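Thread: Newbie trying to understand structure tokens

Hi all, I'm a second-year student working on a class project, and my supervisor (Dr. K.) asked me to get a predicted structure for one chain before our next meeting. I've only ever worked with sequences, so writing a 3D structure as a token string is new to me. If someone could post the tokens and maybe explain what I'm looking at, I'd be very grateful. Here's the chain:
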Amino acid sequence: MKRKAIFGAAALLILALVWAFMPKPAEVEIATVTQGRFERTVQEDGKTRVRDRYVISTPLTGRVARIHLKQGDTVKIDAGVATLWPVAPALLDERSRAAQVAHIGAMQAAVAKAQANVERARASFEQGRAEFKRSETLAQLGFVSPNQNETERLNVRLREKELESARQDEAAARHELEQSNVALKQFLQPTPATTDRAQRAFEVKAPVSGKVLKVLTQSEGIVMAGTPLIELGDPAQLEVVVDILTEDAAPIKPGTRVQLTNWGGADVLQGQVRLIEPAAFTKVSALGVEEQRVNTIVDITSPPATWSTLGDGFKVDVRVLVQVVENAVKVPVSALFPVGARSALFVLDKGRARLREIEVAARNGVEAWVKSSLPPGTQVIVYPDNKLRDGDRVKARGIQAP
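---
Reply by user tm_fold:
Sure, no problem. This is what the structure looks like when written as tokens:
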């Protein structure tokens, strides 16, 4: 009996030592394979903008009156939005004044010369007319040939035209002299501001009906032709523009569904892609990396009453549903790791980790759609340790929702 007790104690000791030195199961986190709707999305920040906006500019150079319209004011088509007045002529400095006085003297001399030319042309015309009368009398008596008489008649017409030309030159010289006198008078006595501006004013009218989005030039001042004054548009006609990486935008087609979130309201707004612009551009990211991006235009399809508080330039989160699959078998992407050219995961089977190679059809940031024979409800190991091997004993720490 005593010997049996000793042998029993030794066996218990050996079993305790074996149990103490036996490798303990690795603690792992697990998740469950599910089946349901799989969505692959592209998520970016976007902003709203008025679909059709009109920038009203000045068609002429002039002085614009102060614009009293404010942002949000309603404007009807052909309504006046701004008033332009002619610009006052520039003042002359002393050097320009001296040059102008000298120019006036030259113009006065030109007028005198033109008057002298008129008198000379008049005298020549009178002389030619007198000679024609004598020639005509002699021709009737037969002392002058008809050809000579016709020559005298043409000579009278030529001198008449010369007199008319001289008178036109005199009129042109007088107008130039008057123009120079006006410029000099402006220097000596600047023209005061006119009290009848309305008679000389030009009114800029709205080309369409809408609301004022921006007042670009509000104060009175001198503006050049083409200066923007006001932006008009209809805030109820909004679209969303979002710049997306070109590699993400390539599979997106017009008509793709879009979800708009974090816009300030509780509802998730629905939309669809209307246009992917054909030309991309380079944008530097926050990390200083150059990226090729392209603008994608999204139409909001939700009822306008649900997003009536949105305005031009508001920020929204855009989720473009690139791929939607119903009844897809899904696993968390945290359970996947590469094995050669394929993907694999560990399945929990009776306390042991079993390696399974699977075919991944698509994935997003949270879950992956797999085409392998993984029945829904299968428990898989997420965030597996790189030391974990096929057949190792494991202990589930908890079940994580997929």
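A couple of things are worth pointing out once you decode it. The first helix runs from residue 2 to 21. Helices lie at 2-21, 94-141, 146-188, 197-200, 246-249. Feel free to ask follow-ups in this thread.
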